[in-house]
Specification:
3 helices; 118 residues; alpha/beta; 30% helix; 6 strands
């Protein structure tokens, strides 16, 4: 599931003539974010979970990353195995079919358009 999402993000970048500036975050304590999607001068943090039912644990990595990178994190996106898309707090939640739309919005705005960020 994770490989599918990362590959789709990579294809999206290439199809739009953008550099491959995808990476991930992992610290010495083992905390990680699955995908960091480079924007102009900031990053979108993308967490990938195959589960169809959302859990509060799915969102914890965003808090840890924000503590380290602060304002460098422009958007938080959770791609999950369920259906549909919505916002939960400051995080955009989408299924794999909604990934391209989220990435297109990120590229167009340089950040994810959403209601206020916390």
């Amino acid at each position: 599931f994770e490989n599918l999402v990362v590959t789709e993000a990579l294809k999206h970048r290439f199809h739009h003539g953008k550099r491959n500036n995808l990476s991930f975050y992992r610290d010495s304590a083992g905390h990680e974010v699955d995908l960091l999607y480079g924007l102009a001068h900031r990053l979108a943090a993308i967490e990938i979970k195959a589960g169809e039912t959302l859990s509060n644990q799915f969102f914890r990595s965003f808090d840890r990353l924000r503590a380290v990178l602060g304002e460098a994190v422009a958007a938080e996106i959770l791609i999950y195995g369920g259906e549909g898309g919505f916002e939960r707090k400051a995080t955009r939640v989408a299924d794999p079919a909604g990934l391209v739309g989220v990435l297109t919005e990120l590229d167009a705005e340089g950040r994810l358009v959403s209601s206020d960020r916390r």
